[in-house]
């Protein structure tokens, strides 16, 4: 009877005193009125005297800095599972060199240029389908097509009219070829776009006296150009053998020529300033230099020409 009474009193006046640490075991102490020895919490549990010492986190281990709350592991970003043991990025969910970014509710993928989708699985260049040997260029989450010569359009689907406007200079003719154009140049012109022109005509040995041992005719042909005129400019140092009442000389102005320069319908000799000459549009011009072969040579001439509208 005495033992029963002590058990009842112990069960009635037990006071639960916790340690203050969430994962340390609590302990029980008999109320001070009885001045009995402290009884361990495990002992009380085994006696099934109360439930307040049952901490649900006692037998829970949370990995990767997870925190146990009410027996459940709260996992940090990037981890999951009952014990936070699953590294969500370890499985490498991001494709095509995408970067795995941990989030509170899982992971997201930061994609390389040219890829998109939840896991960077969509290749934007595959969908772009640049045509005619165009090159796909990914940039800032989008793509564009760099077209090969001779093509244009969003996907390089259109053929460029490389001859419109005409890229050929100095009256060259443009011809379309695969991927571009080529120029057919007039005589005395050259280069990819006929940009090089040999537009200077000089007498032999210029600016020294030209030889005049025998009668001789030299001819230069300047091609005509549709819609263009040819303008000739004679250098001021012109000196060709002419005749007047005083005799034969290189230094006179006279319509009577022993040696002469001619283009179009104009004949030039003697010495003096010569105004520019312009020939009709579209016509080829022959430039003549006639020497009479009397052995008298003069400075001669330097002529330049250009195609003009």
Layout: helices, strands, pairs:
Elements: H1 2-13, E1 14-17, E2 27-30, H2 41-46, E3 67-69, E4 72-74, E5 79-80, E6 86-87, E7 99-103, E8 106-110, E9 115-116, E10 122-123, H3 124-128, E11 135-139, E12 142-146, E13 151-152, E14 158-159, E15 173-177, E16 180-184, E17 189-190, E18 196-197, E19 200-202, E20 216-222, E21 229-234, E22 239-240, E23 242-244, E24 247-249, E25 256-257, E26 260-263, E27 266-268, E28 270-271, E29 277-279, E30 285-291, E31 302-308
Antiparallel strand pairs: 1-2, 3-4, 5-6, 7-8, 9-10, 11-12, 13-14, 15-16, 17-18, 19-31, 20-30, 21-29, 21-31, 22-28, 23-24, 23-25, 26-27, 26-30
Q: Specify the CATH homologous superfamily of the largest domain.
A: Spermadhesin, CUB domain
State the CATH architecture of the largest domain: Sandwich
Overall domain count? 4
Portion of residues within helices: under 10%
| Residue runs with pLDDT of under 50 for 5 or more positions | 1-37
Counting DSSP E segments of at least 2 residues, the number of strands comes to: 31
Distance between the termini: 136 Å
The global form is rod-shaped
Average pLDDT rating:
81
The helix/strand class is mainly beta
Strand portion, in percent?
35-45%
InterPro entries: CUB_dom (IPR000859), EGF (IPR000742), EGF-like_Ca-bd_dom (IPR001881), Notch_Cell-Fate_Det (IPR051022), Sperma_CUB_dom_sf (IPR035914)
GO cellular component, one term: protein-containing complex
Disulfide bonds: 111-120, 147-156, 185-194
Signal peptide: 1-20
């Amino acid at each position: 009877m005495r033992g029963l009474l002590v058990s009842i009193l112990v069960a009635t006046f037990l006071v639960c005193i916790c340690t203050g640490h969430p994962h340390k075991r609590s302990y029980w102490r008999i109320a001070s009125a009885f001045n009995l020895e402290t009884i361990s919490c495990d002992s009380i549990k085994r006696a099934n005297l109360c439930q307040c010492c049952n901490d649900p986190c006692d037998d829970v281990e949370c990995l990767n800095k997870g925190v146990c709350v009410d027996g459940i592991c709260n996992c940090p970003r990037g981890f999951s599972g009952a014990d936070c043991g699953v590294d969500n990025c370890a499985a490498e969910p991001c494709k095509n060199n995408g970067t795995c970014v941990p989030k509170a509710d899982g992971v997201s993928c930061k994609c390389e240029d040219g890829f998109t989708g939840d896991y960077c699985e969509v290749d934007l260049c595959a969908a772009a389908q640049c045509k005619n040997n165009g090159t796909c260029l990914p940039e800032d989450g989008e793509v564009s097509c760099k077209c090969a010569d001779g093509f244009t359009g969003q996907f390089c689907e259109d053929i460029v009219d490389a001859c419109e406007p005409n890229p050929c200079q100095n009256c060259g003719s443009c011809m379309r070829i695969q991927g571009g154009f080529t120029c057919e140049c007039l005589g005395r012109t050259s280069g990819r776009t006929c940009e090089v022109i040999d537009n200077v005509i000089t007498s032999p040995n210029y600016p020294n006296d030209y030889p005049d041992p025998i009668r001789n005719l030299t001819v230069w042909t300047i091609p005509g150009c549709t819609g263009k005129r040819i303008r000739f400019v004679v250098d001021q140092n012109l000196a060709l053998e002419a005749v007047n009442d005083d005799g034969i000389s290189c230094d006179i102005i006279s319509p009577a020529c022993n040696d002469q320069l001619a283009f179009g319908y104009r004949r030039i000799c003697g010495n003096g300033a010569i105004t520019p000459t312009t020939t009709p549009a579209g016509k080829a011009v022959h430039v003549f230099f006639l020497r009479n072969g009397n052995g008298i040579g003069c400075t001669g001439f330097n002529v330049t020409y250009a195609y003009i509208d």
